UniProtKB/TrEMBL annotation:
Similarity comment: Belongs to the cytochrome P450 family.
Protein known as: Cytochrome P450 78A5
Superkingdom assignment: Eukaryota
Keywords assigned: Heme, Iron, Membrane, Metal-binding, Monooxygenase, Oxidoreductase, Transmembrane, Transmembrane helix
Cofactor requirements of the protein: heme
Transmembrane segments: 20-44
Length: 331
């Protein structure tokens, strides 16, 4: 067989053009496309997370990812940033894949807080692990949430309940004054934050559990340690909330700490609930009139339609203790 029969004749003046793009050229094009795409996402107003949003209303905000929330004074940094962008009424920004809006204008902030969308805001991992998803702070908006709100408004924050605890607060106030006197006499220096912390925590413990503690020793020291660690875990910025694959690693160790603390809280609060049940049975046995005093008593004597399970009661009581104490400390 001749060679001409097994080959193609393109002519003497023809030039062969390959039909396939070279691998080097293909990679270069893909890399260029990737750079353009990432640049668009990065420099989008509000950052990466807002670039993927279906919301088409343009809200001013910094590009990229904002790291202010991981700092110690996030509110100051965000306020300064919104002022520099002339976005004090509303500013959008991204942290990982999470979209945020922030306002330094009171009217806008009030509108956000009154919005029904705010009722179902995403829950942090630490808040979920510490049982906050079963209390009014982060419970999904619905019948369960409305029931918790009704119980709180009626039995915990009502004017009648607050007025009934006047003597308790007066006594705690006297103890705080004595503590200030003692510290002055001993060292001439007063740790005001510590006095306020112990005083507010004791007030909450009396209202919720009906017990007073010496937070310097014994069970009181254990309680104070649990509450303080709860403050810290809830306030620590967790990258796993905003960069999903980091959640598998728990690089900051927050999940492990939260689960350990939640186990301790379950034992502590369950024991207090059982003590109240035993006291109730003893009162009924001897024919005494049962007096509903603290919030544990209230939860144990709710009507059938409002009744909470033991696990829900533990979550509600713990969150009330932690959240109210934290609120009082920042007043």
């Amino acid at each position: 067989m001749s060679s001409s029969s097994s080959s193609f004749d393109f002519g003497s003046d023809s030039t062969f053009l390959p039909l396939l793009i070279s691998p080097t050229s293909s990679l270069t094009s893909l890399f260029a496309l990737l750079v353009v795409t990432l640049s668009f996402l990065w420099f989008y107003p509000g950052g990466v997370a807002w670039a993927f949003s279906k919301v088409r209303v343009s809200v001013p905000g910094p590009p990229g990812i904002v790291f202010a929330l991981s700092g110690t004074a996030a509110h100051r940094v965000l306020a300064k940033l919104s002022s520099s962008l002339q976005a004090t009424k509303l500013m959008a920004f991204s942290v990982g894949i999470t979209r945020f809006v922030v306002s330094t204008h009171p009217d806008t902030a009030k509108e956000i807080l009154n919005s029904s969308a705010f009722a179902d805001r995403p829950i942090k991992e630490s808040a979920y692990e510490l049982l906050f998803h079963r209390a009014i702070g982060f419970a999904p908006f619905g019948e369960y949430w409305r029931n918790l709100r009704r119980i709180s408004a009626t039995y915990l924050f009502s004017p009648r309940r607050i007025a009934a605890s006047v003597e308790q607060r007066v006594e705690i106030g006297k103890q705080m004054v004595e503590e200030v006197k003692g510290q002055m006499a001993k060292s001439g220096v007063v740790s005001v934050k510590r006095v306020l912390h112990y005083g507010s925590l004791n007030n909450v413990m009396m209202s919720v559990f009906g017990k007073s503690y010496d937070f310097a020793k014994g069970e009181g020291a254990e309680v104070e340690e649990m509450v303080s660690e709860g403050y810290e875990l809830l306030g620590t910025f967790n990258w796993s909330d905003h960069v999903p694959f980091l959640g598998w690693l728990d690089l900051q160790g927050l999940r492990k700490r939260c689960r350990r603390l939640a186990a301790e809280v379950n034992v502590f609060v369950a024991r207090i609930i059982e003590e109240h049940r035993v006291r109730e049975k003893a009162s009924v046995t001897v024919g005494e009139e049962l007096v509903v005093g603290d919030f544990v008593d209230v939860l144990l004597h709710l009507e059938q339609g409002e009744k909470l399970s033991d696990s829900d009661m533990i979550a509600v009581l713990w969150v009330r203790t932690t959240f109210i104490s934290l609120h009082l400390m920042h007043e």
